[in-house]
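Feature request, filed as a ticket because there's no other form

It would be nice if the structure record came with a short human-readable summary line next to the tokens. Right now we just get the raw output. Example of a typical job, pasted below so the devs can see what we mean:
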Amino acid sequence: MPLLEIEDLKTYFYSDDAVVKAVDGITYDIEEGETVALVGESGCGKSVSSLSILGLIPSPPGRIVDGEVKFRGTDLLQLSASEMRRYRSRRIAMVFQEPMSSLNPVINIETQLTEGMMTQLSLTKRQAGDRALELLETVGISDPERRLKQFPHEFSGGMRQRVMIAIALSCEPDLIIADEPTTSLDVTIQAQILDLMQTLTRERGMALLLITHNLGVVARYVERINIMYAGRIIEHGASTDIFEKPSHPYTVGLLNSIPRIDRDTRSSLDPIPGQPPDLARLPAGCHFAERCRNAIDKCEREYPTTVEVEPKHTSACWVAEAVYNDNALQLSHA
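Raw output as currently delivered:
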């Protein structure tokens, strides 16, 4: 049994004149101790899907309308609010996108680190304080005794993100969800934070769901990748398969828009044309069709079925096999 199973999850937001289908039937799983990535453009529903797992969708206007989110066989969507609180931090922890808006600016770091441990693990204030000190040392913050008494504004962006990781680790969860954990950091700090998360989760046997808009970020850190577009997962596969033999034109576009040192530096990037669709007014056919260079007439009329282009590598595209074969052929000639 996988650690986490998401089946046909749908999360919609309602307004007076429209229904925004932020997450529109996604399915994937995460095994014990595995690192999985959820990748896609801003606004495709990645963060909404992660908040749905933890039952943190604001209602109104949002509502989970269908699907299952099973953690060790228990459907989290069927739990009461009090039952769900026992899973947050203790079983599933989250590293949010912007630590400055996630950390309380008027409460010191020690209090924010120890609160969850005293609540979820029933530790005394002294025990929680000792563990908080160890956690700051673990995530690479020097002079932890002094730092515990400080406030978030006294930390750099990279250090605040390390504090968020320490909070996520504090109750020893089985799964950590990292939602764009390196967005506001420079590339050097990005690498440090990702290396730290990879090391700590592997040492503790934790699973990691890494959510990002940047395929380049996940290249060396994850085993499997889910590509998300307009509320749906449109390609799934092992990391090596996605990078070497992508089968969806959107995935190809993401890869072509990444700067690479093995390309001619004089050549420009190849961006994806157009804009993502309005999630409140999605087309009947493939949601990527208007931006796709490989589109055929059928793409405009019908949403594509998901096909398996190779074992455990799937794609929701009418021309998936042709795209896959073309990239596989290029790989064989490389």
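Something like this underneath would help us a lot:
The chain has a mean pLDDT of 91.
The chain is about 35% helix and 25% strand.
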